[in-house]
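hey so i finally got around to running the thing on that chain from the lab meeting. sorry it took forever, my laptop kept dying and i had to restart like 3 times. anyway pasting the input first so we r on the same page abt which one it is
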Amino acid sequence: MPKYSFTTLVSDKVVKYIGTFKSSKCAVFGQFENHMCEACSRVPTLPSFKKRALKRHESLSNGPRSTKIRNEYLTRTETIGKLRNFQTVVKKLESKVYFLTAENIRLKTRRRTLKEELLEYSHRGSMKQILYKLQTAKEMGKLDDKVVLADLLKCCANNFHAKNHGQRYGEPTRLFFESVLLKAGPQLATFITNNLLGPEVHTIFRWRKQHQIDETCSINGEYFMKVGEIYKGIVEKRNLPRVPVFMAEDETAIIGKITYNQKTDELVGFCGQEGLYHRCEQDFRVKVGDGEDGYNNIVQAFQQNKIGMLA
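ok and heres what got predicted. didnt touch it at all, straight out
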């Protein structure tokens, strides 16, 4: 390779620098002592040649190179060090590949699919077995018509980690516990609640009151209209052609007498006004009053009203 040599002043001392150089476009195949091609002959005339050479000497004197340099520009010592580093890295990677391959073989021999694990859990009687069977039943569509059961399982799962005032229940679950309370009473409702993580009895009572409809039974048109709406809903829900209805009124004979209610100042015992079109009225009362008006009201009550004889 061609050589260069120059001196410079460093800290009041003359320092001589000697090295080799080669152009990236060198046309000489091989290395000759004092021979260089035309491309290499122009390298020392470059304005930045001396500065680059000084920078290279500084990087070599301060330790390993900090910049990337082509392998053909490295010295013999640098090339040997670089090859040894590569050899160390290659040995480490080969060792890592060996252990990873061995681990992969061991995992393949012990590998089981998720289906195989679930099938094993299904024979253990554990919670995972129950969840697996429920998921299988859902995928098969066996829970589609079990609305109450599916909603009850969902509510139990959501309420396990909730506080007492943070528990929530779906509409099918609420109707289920309301039905238990209405048909079996609070004792059985409490028993089912304690064993199925259901709502408290007072909560069920509060739900029932939300759907409660207070009606006073009487023989009048308004009452029959409300009963008709109920039966109309039954016909639409059950898809029935018609619903037969039978209504009857049962009365019991009693001893008719008139009593005076001192608190309300009323006469009790009359069932309505006397006449051709008499019709018994519920809670028919006559206000008495004071003085002469009160006396006249009592006389007119007995003359114009009829005493109830049936109940």
